[in-house]
Structure formats: structure tokens, C-alpha cells
Amino acid sequence: MAPAGEGQLAANRFLSKTEENADFNQYWYSNLTIDALVKACTVDAPTEDDAAKPPIRAAFLSTPSLYHSLPVKARKSCALLDLDPEVKGSCPEEKFLRYAAAVAVLGDPSSPYCTAEGGVRVLGTTVAENANLMKRLFSATSQKFKPSIPHLVYQYDTYANYPCQPLDAANPEIPED
């Protein structure tokens, strides 16, 4: 995402056009959180000058705000699995399963599609009470960056099973404990 000015992010198109749907228990990340998580997911993505490097392949589980905030070129090699057809990202199970060897998987660990087999990088957000589950299933540990989800009444933590510099700093939107 390109900065709008000194220390500000440009408005997020997905956030400005897509309302949360309580029927699907949808709560969008803040613009700053989306920016940090997209950077975390695309940290090894090829640049314009690095055409020989394969594109990132990522499967996004119920995280349309992240999927739709990826650069268009990166999005072409990714998949979004979401129950809400309004987010225009639902994909057939067979397409999703092709992404089982994805570079990153983002979503809730309670999804039956999440696995950490085959050296898959896992990046997810969930409540702190799921720390042991994230460790057991994905070898993922809590990161310093906590996501801001403005309409959610409890705080999530961010987990990754790989070193991820974009998640090394605290989120300025979240008060320190």
C-alpha cells in the first residue's frame, strides 16, 4: 500500500466498499493491520526486477480484506476461501486444495483445511487462548504485532511459523499491556 502522506496509509479500497456481515461473523482488520499482514504474507514475493522468482502462492481462509488488498499481480497466484459470496473470492474446494503447498495460509486455526505439512508458512490471527493449538498444529508462535479489528470486542494475537520482520514491532493501534 502506498503512503497517502507522512506516516499515513492510503484508504483501503476493500474497507471502503465492503461492509462487515454479522450473519457471517465478519470483522475486518484495520487499514494499518491489513498493510502489516499483507507485507508479512508477501515478504518473499518477487519484485518487478525479479521475474525469475516464482510468484507467491497463498491460500486465504476467511480473510477477504487481506486477499483483496494484495497487489493485483500477487493475487493472481493466490486463492480465497470464504463462505460469503459477496466478497467475490469463494473458490471450489479442488482449487483451494491445489494451494495446500502454499507459501502462506492466513485464517482461523479451527478451519479443517489448515495444515502445516510440506513446509508451508502459516500466518494467522486468533485469540491468545489458542496459542498451544497454533504451536501444536503449525509450529506457529505469537508475534509482537497484534491485529486491530475495530468492531471485535476481544483482542486477537498474530501467529507465524516463520521469521517475519513486518510482525516484529507492536501495532501502534493497540495499547501495550
From TrEMBL:
Q: Which domain of life is it from?
A: Eukaryota
Q: Please provide, in alphabetical order, the Gene Ontology terms of the cellular component aspect for this entry.
A: cytoplasm
Localization, per the record, is: Cytoplasm
Identify the main location.
Answer: cytoplasm
Please provide the record's keywords in A-Z order: Cytoplasm, Methyltransferase, Transferase
Q: Name one GO molecular function term.
A: protein-lysine N-methyltransferase activity
Q: Is the Methyltransferase keyword given for this protein? A: yes
Output the GO biological process annotations, alphabetical, semicolon-separated: methylation
Q: Which Pfam families match?
A: N6-adenineMlase (PF10237)
Q: Does the keyword Membrane apply?
A: no
Q: Which PANTHER family does UniProt cross-reference here?
A: EEF1A LYSINE METHYLTRANSFERASE 1, NUCLEIC ACID BINDING PROTEIN
- UniProt-recorded name of the protein: N-6 adenine-specific DNA methyltransferase 2
Q: What is the lineage of its organism?
A: Eukaryota, Viridiplantae, Chlorophyta, Pseudoscourfieldiophyceae, Pseudoscourfieldiales
